């Protein structure tokens, strides 16, 4: 999805997906671990080990992607069994990860309100290609002026290149862009790229902070 640049927009609000437009990742991790019968600590450690094998973090191997989801799931099973002695079936990982996971309706409403005020609203997500259908099921593309997923552009947050690309796609300068993200490293990366950023804790808090930024960038009404 490619936007038509709108240089008259006062601000480009780029929202993360997982953990922002969805329930907190920590909640989903716990529910998923229970669903597949694997201790949470061992699942996270296996993800870290597999990511390290590919020179990245826990999700980097499938976010770009370096491997597909099925290969990644099989490698997680191998680590769980070989390192921790835990037999696990992680087939159809994404289907089970997103099962029963609702969109954050309060945040969707806030994004729509930002657009109504004239802001450019985009999604900027480290998202594996096989998970796009789940994302579209949860929230329709029509809520966004543009969507950038890591696998489509061969880079991911917090790499500076993805922020450069997103600002260019919005047609705005870096300081006119704001990232809303639940991960501190992504917030820091955005700020280092010259962006503004909001560390997402909940929809109400983030909406207040973005609204203040919009207030600061919107022109004052003309005096009559």
From TrEMBL:
Lineage top rank: taxon: Bacteria
Question: Where would one find coiled-coil regions in this protein?
Answer: none
A Pfam family: Hydrolase
Protein name, as recorded: HAD family phosphatase
Its source organism is Streptomyces alanosinicus
């Amino acid at each position: 999805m490619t936007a038509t640049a709108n240089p008259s927009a006062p601000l480009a609000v780029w929202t993360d997906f997982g953990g922002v437009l969805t329930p907190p990742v920590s909640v989903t991790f716990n529910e998923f671990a229970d669903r597949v019968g694997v201790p949470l600590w061992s699942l996270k450690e296996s993800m870290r080990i597999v990511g390290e094998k590919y020179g990245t973090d826990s999700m980097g191997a499938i976010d770009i992607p370096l491997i597909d989801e099925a290969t990644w799931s099989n490698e997680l099973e191998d680590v769980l069994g070989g390192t921790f002695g835990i037999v696990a079936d992680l087939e159809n990982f994404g289907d089970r990860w997103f099962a029963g996971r609702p969109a954050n309706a309060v945040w969707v409403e806030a994004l729509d309100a930002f657009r109504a005020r004239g802001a450019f609203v985009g999604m900027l997500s480290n998202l594996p290609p096989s998970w796009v259908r789940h994302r579209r099921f949860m929230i329709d593309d029509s809520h966004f002026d543009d969507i950038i997923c890591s696998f489509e552009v061969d880079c991911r947050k917090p790499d500076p290149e993805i922020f450069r690309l997103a600002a260019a796609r919005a047609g705005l300068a870096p300081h006119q862009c704001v990232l809303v993200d639940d991960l501190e490293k992504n917030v820091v990366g955005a700020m280092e790229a010259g962006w503004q950023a909001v560390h997402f804790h909940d929809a109400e808090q983030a909406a207040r902070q973005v609204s203040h930024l919009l207030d600061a960038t919107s022109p004052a009404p003309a005096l009559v």
